[in-house]
Write a structure and sequence with these properties.
mainly alpha, His-Me finger endonuclease fold, two-stranded antiparallel sheet, 3 helices, 7% strand, flat
Length: 138
């Protein structure tokens, strides 16, 4: 099992290195940008420059408005054959993510975020009785 990041570590026998966390974060941002660039470039080579939802065609001049959508909503799932990708214009891509959030929340649950458990706290559960008690006192 890979070890988990536990924050910046103090160098042995000395003061903490305040720049270490900054370097780690900067490297993570560079790696993310590189992954994004890589799968976008591959998707643009694999598929025609057309939004798969609305059919809008793109040229080099407006290609920045064509995005890569992950069908399973997992941005780390980037198979070489592009089977988890589809090209969407920025408007259809935004609509697809809004639909995903709406669908996931339609049954009263929040959007799934991995292994997180659902909240059990109900802060307004007794609100009706509290309001009735307040009305009786007046």
């Amino acid at each position: 099992m890979p070890s988990r990041y536990q924050g910046p570590q103090k160098p042995r026998g000395g003061a903490p290195d305040p720049d270490k966390l900054d370097r780690i974060v900067a490297e993570a941002h560079r790696a993310r940008e590189q992954r994004l660039h890589d799968y976008r470039e591959r998707a643009l080579r694999l598929y025609p420059w057309v939004c798969t939802r609305c059919g809008r065609e793109f040229t080099r001049e407006n290609l920045r408005q064509l995005t890569v959508h992950h069908r399973d909503h997992d941005h780390d799932n980037n198979p070489a054959d592009g089977s988890n990708w589809e090209l969407l214009c920025i408007y259809c891509h935004e609509n697809e993510h809004a639909r995903h959030v709406d669908h996931a929340g339609s049954d009263g649950r929040s959007v799934p975020t991995g292994d997180a458990e659902a909240a059990t706290h109900r802060p307004f559960e007794a609100l009706k009785s509290l309001l009735k008690d307040a009305d009786k006192k007046e």
